[in-house]
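Here is one such protein, fold included:

. . .
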Amino acid sequence: MKKAVVLGGTHDHISLIQTLKQKGFNTILVDYLDAPPAAEIADKHIKESTVDKETVLQIAKNENASLVISTCIDSALSTVAYVSEKLFLPCHVPYSTALSLTNKSLMKEIFIKNGIPTSRYYVLNNKNCDSCNDLLFPLVVKPVDANSSKGVTKVLNRKDLHNAVETAFKFTLSGKVIIEEFKEGIELSVDALVVNGEAHLVMISENIKSAVNRGNFTIVKNRCPAEISSADESAILEIAGKISEAYNIKNAPLLIQLIYNNGNISVIEFSSRIGGGSKLHFIRRMKGFDLLDAFVDQILGNEIEFAADNQANFGQMCYLYANPGIIDSYCGFEMLKKTGV
């Protein structure tokens, strides 16, 4: 039986393992936790870090793997590409591209070079902020190489800038921090799929941030559809096409985060992956399209047909943040079902 090494054991990786099993793969899960959620359905769990490239390479060799894969997380992408390149296995991006996707300062350079709209920025190699005096507040400070919102802070004045830079440096492995101008507007999450070099929009949704933790960009809801016009959708599709062309991405998903304000678009960042936090289930419900299955087929070299159509007029995915505990009960769901919500 074919073997696939799966990097990361989150709930989203459960779906990935199920998809791989349907395609005839025996699955070996690599995750540093003792009992990650996906370990229950994987054929084998090896407790190692997904960012340790050489260890994962040795695991893939020992298992005689024909595929190394991950989904919904950025941290393992460069490992997947590195190991795949070393063992001549299929991968949706080469290692050089994977490295550029996990470096926010390099990403900014590529955006500007290729006419992709983004905010002004500076990169710091030390904690001296004097070089960014011409940037206009509010600013966003972030590590160049950390995932999600780790170490990311919005600052309103110079007094708070130093503390934000200190925080960002705690999360960077490369010793670099990026400071960029904050763009006002709504934050959109764009899921796209590049098929044979052509970008297609799968779903555009709006990220709703926490009112009590707004400076740290905590997402509490993801809402679809986003309130934008068809002309705005066309502009976003054009940007997705520019990104895929700039990075020479031919067959892969794109997850683009951008700010939209009355027709003005500014790209924050992107990655060649599916959104995490059960986003793939949200896409299936709203668009009737299995983006994960398409992603795996693209890596395996299978032909896919892109078809994403509205299955619901409105949908919202809510995230609960809580201390460890057990949920006691759910209230109101039966009433919602009866009323057709």
